[in-house]
Design a protein that fits this description.
Blueprint: H1 3-27, E1 42-48, E2 63-69, H2 86-90, E3 94-95, E4 110-111, H3 118-122, E5 128-133, E6 149-158, E7 161-176, E8 193-198, H4 200-212, E9 214-219, E10 233-239, E11 246-251
Antiparallel strand pairs: 1-2, 3-4, 5-8, 6-7, 6-9, 7-8, 7-10, 10-11
């Protein structure tokens, strides 16, 4: 190989090695980290300090102020800047719904003394609370608890026959006796009355039905509470002494 060719090859090799080292330097160069400080505007919101049960009377130690991002505020939240004395104002209020620690307090979740009783506080607008007599055998063996949903049946007797019809479906139980909340560890609800949440028309019908016969409650699955498929029908069963029973169904 001629001297000029050797020199050219050497220069090319040196250039290639230099380029390779340059690429490695770029690849292994540490990434530039840019730190940007963002200031979030905060407000103090009144929240539950501890668990507050349905119908529970609150004390001053049930609440605390907590920092909350301005961008996540709801108009229903109680702000310290607007109501600095809210803790003392709400002391002695009754919880209309269970509250968890850290949950923001709103006017709809508490009712103050003088604004109605506990049951009136948890009753939705437009609905009525009415009680009906129940026994162990007509109340699912005392296993029905507040906030369960039931079907309401009426059993009547006429000319030696017993007829059962479904008056209402998927009705919320507000209370059993004087128990308005199912507490942990309490398996049975004592009491011989069940207070149900009904419309005004349904309340009138139940009052009349109590005078006609015996009311029974049929416990529904928790899966039905959110309004699953509901068949609008009335089922009447005739029970004859010494004879077979028959059912008559009418679908609306």
């Amino acid at each position: 190989m001629k001297r000029g060719q050797v020199l050219g090859v050497a220069i090319a090799g040196i250039s290639g090695v230099g380029a390779f080292i340059g690429v490695l330097t770029l690849v292994n160069k540490p990434a530039t980290v840019v730190t940007r400080e963002v200031t979030v505007s905060m407000a103090q919101v009144l929240v539950a300090k501890t668990d507050i049960g349905l119908g529970q009377i609150t004390g001053a130690d049930y609440f605390r102020w907590q920092d909350w991002p301005q961008t996540a505020l709801s108009p229903s939240y109680i702000l310290r800047s607007a109501r600095p004395n809210a803790v003392s104002e709400l002391t002695g209020a009754v919880a209309r719904t269970p509250l968890m620690p850290g949950e923001p307090i709103t006017a709809m979740k508490l009712v103050k003394a003088g604004e109605g009783g506990v049951l009136a506080a948890i009753l939705p607008a437009g609905m009525r609370a009415i009680s009906t007599r129940i026994k162990e055998e007509t109340g699912v063996g005392k296993m029905i608890l507040p906030n369960d949903h039931v079907d309401v049946l009426l059993t009547t007797r006429k000319r030696g026959d017993h007829a059962a019809e479904t008056l209402f479906r998927n009705v919320r139980v507000l209370a059993i006796g004087q128990l308005i909340e199912a507490r942990e560890g309490k398996k049975l609800a004592e009491g011989n009355t069940a207070t149900l949440e009904l419309t005004p028309a349904q309340a009138e019908e139940l009052a009349a039905a109590n005078a006609r016969g015996e009311i029974s409650l049929v416990l529904r699955s928790i899966a039905d509470i959110k309004g699953g498929d509901e068949t609008m029908s009335t089922q009447v069963k005739i029970l004859r002494y010494g004879g077979r029973s028959r059912s008559v169904g009418a679908v609306n």
